[in-house]
Queue: 3 jobs
Job 1
Amino acid sequence: MNMPEIIKEFPRVPADIVRQASEFQPAILADVAGRRGALHGRIRALHPSMRLSGTAFTVEVRPGDNLMIHAAIALAKPGDVLVIDGKADLSSALMGTIMMTACRKLGLAGIVMDGAARDSLEIIEMGYPVFAAGTNPNGPTKNIGGRIGHPVSVGGVTVYPGDFITGDNDGVVVVERGKIESLLPLAAKKVKDEAARIAAIEGGDTTAKWLDGALRKAGVLKEGETL
């Protein structure tokens, strides 16, 4: 049985879990997820202050064509983040101010795209969170089909529709829909542990107690040697 090109409905991370997970930095979630799920660093916020969290609404387009993004905007739900596989093409922009304004009006939580945006200064002034691989003033075509609601590859990471996705100035992290809730206690513990370690450093305890053992394991120090 052939899958339709447009899948309109799929399970999403519940809104209360999104809210709880959004309290953690993407870096914290990536760490407790096994240091995985971070998109390639080419996908960056248009402005350092931008941050987003929500459920992934996946879109696949041909390079330089945004027909399916317009369809996605019509179908996405409040709280969704458009996650667009633009094939890392930067020869023309996939979205600009007009489309971003529509997304904001519809309550979409933001945009993550492996492609280019334009009207970046206007989008920054809007304060709407957009994470893109770059910018380009060229406009896109609107002629070529693609897919919506299918798994996509964005920044070298597979994103499934309904996954949790979050981003800040460090970059973007995706966590599987079925996994994010179980990571929340681990993330809270990591935040607490890191705060305690920073407090200890501020108090003068700057020694990394694990370092000698790691250096011996790596063969840099001999058994019994210390730095």
Job 2
Amino acid sequence: MEQNCMQKIRDIFSSLKGAEKRVAEYILKHPKDIIHFSITELSEAAECGEATIIRFCKKLGYKGYQELKIKMASEVISPIEDIHEEIKENDDELVIMQKVFNANIYSLNQTLKLNDYKLIKKAIDILYNSERIVFYGMGGSAALAYDFYHKFLRTGKWVEFASDSHVQAMISSRLNDMDCIFAISNTGSNKDLIENIGIARKNGTKVISITANSKSPISKVSDVVLISYGKESNFKSEAMESRISALSLIDTIFVGYCLKDKEEYLDNLHKVRNAIAVKRY
């Protein structure tokens, strides 16, 4: 399969010098402009001569600027997914940024498709009806669980956070059928976390989880399983993309929760803001 134009430009970007690099940078940053630009307008925008643009087009394997415009038009009007481009050792920062951002945007869209809004609603209802909510996460997922815990401190609900296995076990032993565990695990297969959730489930505690793997062990001990999509590559772990997706799921649930009782949330938010106001100059 032939590479699309944007991929070709990113592949040769680090090898370009001077004016040709300015042409490539302008196209990568403003791909839609090229469809309407004459070669003169592009030369002015990239601060180079028209001959430089012709040489650049030929380096991409095109006969000239018109062919480049045709290729760009087909991609902008009907975008070709280039989100699975591997990050290479010689990629410049601009190319790295575009590849990472494209991959994250794709992961968010996939996460949106993978999760039924009815499961989001079910998760919100469980949280709303719970007397106590505990947020569990271990390793890299601990930061995500803490982020959710930090948000929920503003709701007035009794909440707790734990990333240590022994502390999780102790908390789980005290939970009952009126409580809820919200667990985040990218792999969904952390043995200690699954065991600690199991302790609480024996007491009837409900469990909501976010994981990148729908068939992981954590899904078998959860009442609601939400999927945060992520793809692994050589210079980028799967957790990098699924982290962005998980945060978006967290924000969605939090906003939905707050809307169930807006007055109570705003009242508690006012109290929290007053409490931390004295900590600032």
Job 3
Amino acid sequence: MQYRHFKGGIYDFVCEATLESDPTVTMIVYRAANGSIWTRPSAVFFELVEVDGAMVQRFTRIEEAK
């Protein structure tokens, strides 16, 4: 599945992972268009951020056409 970052980039969701140093933290692993791999804590990946005075999702799932 793909997600759009609030700044416009498109990222492929790779998987969820457990942070070794703190097993209570779930990490989201995702890939940029250029192939680079990134991780963020799930709570940060799915949080709301303020953009031009409005709260928006940091990453929004791109729905596939059926």
